[in-house]
Amino acid sequence: MLYNYLKIAYRNIIRNKTFSTINILGLALGMASSLLLLLWVQDELRIGRQHANTGLLYRIMENEIADGRIVTDEDTPGLLPEELKRQFSEVAYAAGISSNENHVLSAGEKISRQSGCYAGADWFNMYSIPLLTGTSQSALSEPGNIAISRKTAETFFKNAQAALGQVIRIDNHTDYKVSAVFEDLPDNSTDKYDFLLNWKTFLKREPWLNVWENGGPGTRIQLRPGTDPDKVNAKLKTFLKGRNKDISPSFNIELFLQPEAEVYLYSNFKNGHRDGGRIEYVRLFIIVAAFLLLIAGINFMNLATARSVKRAREVGVRKAIGAERRSLIWQFMNEALLMTALAAIVAIIAVWISLPVFNQLTGKQLSLPIGNFTFWMLLAAILLVTAGVSGSYPALFLSSIRPVRVLKGTLHISAGSQLFRRGLVVFQFVLSILMIVGTIVVYQQLQYVQTKNLGYDRENLVVIRGEGEIAQKYQVFKQQLLQLAGIQSVTYMQTSPLQNGNTTDGVQWSGKEPGLAIQFNNTSVGYDFVKTMKLQLVRGRDFSPEFGTDSANYLINESTAKRLGYKDPIGQPLTFGKHPGIIVGLLKDFHFNSLHVPIRPIIIRLNDQGAYGNILIRTQPGQVKQALSNIEAVCRKMNPTFPFSYSFVDEEFMKVYKSEAVVGKLITLFACLSIFIACLGLFGLAAFMAEQRTKEIGIRKVFGASVASIVTLLSRDFIKLVLIAILIASPLAWYATAQWLETFTYKISLSWPVFVIAGLSAITIAVLTISFQSIRAALVNPVNSLKGE
User: Of 88, 187, 220, 521, which sees the most CB atoms within 10 A?
Assistant: First the structure.
């Protein structure tokens, strides 16, 4: 019986090549798009979950409560990891981790720039990172130890075994002994590094970390099995109260746990509580994948229904000779299953071909997991669900036809059936309009971000690291650069112009309320900072060598002036830590962090001696290539053991919004696919309507109706459906895009032209799709359509 069903299904597919091709193409596109999105989603969900003890791993987070605000980050005191192990019996392991920094590693004649961190001795006990040589207990147990990746070992010593016990020099300054070689970190790691150094070395190098009042690095812990995280959280909340003795009573820090498995997906916090992150994109694309499958299934329904008149007599005859409705339903469901299976084969081929492009677009390394049983189960589930959804309505509709009415030639489609199909078309275009609006809004927001005035000029601004002789002899380096062609100005900045996380509440000023604690961002800079960054001075001046006391003076921004309560801050006293001085310059507010966060108060102090941070070089417009060549020559001369590297501030700025850019491209791509698939469905319904009204069109033509009037007649009902879809989709699109824009502090305003453009686009696409079928029906010779009468 099954064989007969499949044979009949195959014959029907071959007999109706055009409809079958459209059906298979629509289903294949829907399935391929869904598979790509689900592979992306699966990869996102895997990040940070690859460790054997993932369920027991946590990051220590801080809620800093001051000035009526709660700021959440993972910058904890350097003494915290060891203290937690001593005070908490629930903690099996604890390790600090510093921020990732680029350093120059050398061994013998080989030199390479690598990224690395300082980490606690328990690091390899906590994280399932395979060690090729060395042990987890000894890898980071002693000062002077360095654990390196397989890639780093092969770069310097050919293989992991040869690297063990060898010496690597960092930044041409300090020697470290290779104590372990670990496997290169997989793509789904939340931490990225090529080497790790001993934590005690870090505490010795940075003495400020040995004070409880200071925070900077992160802290990771592994709880013992069976531990209740809520109970640990309750104890952590007040853990720092007795230790931060010098902190103002109005400033409080509360510690809490964040599961390691949630770090990547739930990175946003608001008012001290988790507030989404990349999980929003994961949810979005799961919904989009489901919608694309649903749109493809709706197409199948519409196209199968369009062929119903031709299949009606077949059903009538089969019923007349005794076929049961159940057997007819199985027949049509088998046809749907066979067509979906063919579409699945096409979809897998399409995914395999498009994966390299998709990986380039998303920055991932996805592949078809052919050998994974779960993948085939997922594909089988998609196939069965798609076949079930797409084949159910045609099967139920055709099997319900009464043979007497069919064989008499009086088959009519009920108003309810027509309403259902039109509802499906409205639903398709609601989804398509939502994606059109989303695409436009994402594009506008990214354009806004790219072109927004940050308060400084990020064009032609080059950044190089202050290291080696360049950092120690910064003044000599600066003067040599200023004598070269293509260089406008040079300055130094301790932090990045795009990300300044340094904060302090150790600030005193005239009129400050007793006990008041306000968090200020801070950084140190060199002379010509305002000139090089092209910042706008509201009052006062930049730091200048002409004023010998500037080493104790400060620049502030407008937000700082408001918090200090100074109407005219120039000349007013300000004490940063234990260094009293005066304010010499007021800067117009400028962005020194992501546009996701508001501009915060910042205090800028002078340090023009060493340049262990970032050196900013403003080049002449149109002379960037020559300037870079000159900069490289000076760097190689002063720092022969350091590879020359640089970055542009504008390019680094765009990397901050890489996630949004990728999401924008994906939305655009799948919006186009959803519109195309929806148009296939509209084409099917137009074909069905034209087929139903063949004789009506013939009679109208006999009575003199023009082609234009018939096209208008056939198109009018479909345009109504699209207009209904626009009315339904517009408020939904407004709400969805408004929610996404809320993640930006600085954003575009939603305006009516966006929805007008989306609506007109949908109408235009629909008219073009319908017109083909309508014109074709209108051009049919009425003799052919009426010859049976």
Answer: 220
- Per-residue pLDDT, averaged over 400-422, amounts to 60
For the chain, state the CA radius of gyration.
Answer: 34
pLDDT of 3 above 70: no
Nearest-angstrom CA–CA distance, 652 and 491: 18
Alpha-carbon distance of 100 to 120, in angstroms, equals 14
Cα gap 558→547, rounded to integer Å: 23
- Give the burial class of 157: count Cβ atoms within 10 A of its Cβ; 0-12 exposed, 13-18 middle, 19 or more buried: buried
How many CB atoms sit inside 10 A of residue 244's CB? 17
Which of 477, 465, 456, 506 shows the shortest CA–CA distance to 608? 477
**Residue 445 neighbours by CB distance under 10 Å:** 22
Q: Is the pLDDT of residue 128 over 60?
A: yes
What is residue 452's DSSP assignment?
S
Q: For residue 581, with 0-12 CB atoms within 10 Å meaning exposed, 13-18 middle and 19 or more buried, which class applies?
A: middle
**Residue from 789, 759, 765 nearest 686 by CA:** 765
Quote the Cα angle for 394-400-405, to 5°: 120
Give domain limits for the chain. 1-47+268-412, 54-263, 435-450+655-789, 468-641
Distance CA 49, CA 585 (A): 49
670 vs 32: CA distance, rounded Å: 11
CA within 13 Å, CB half, 329: 9
For residues 167 and 107, the answer to whether their CB atoms sit within 8 Å is yes
> At what angle are helices 17-46 and 325-362 packed, to 10 degrees?
50
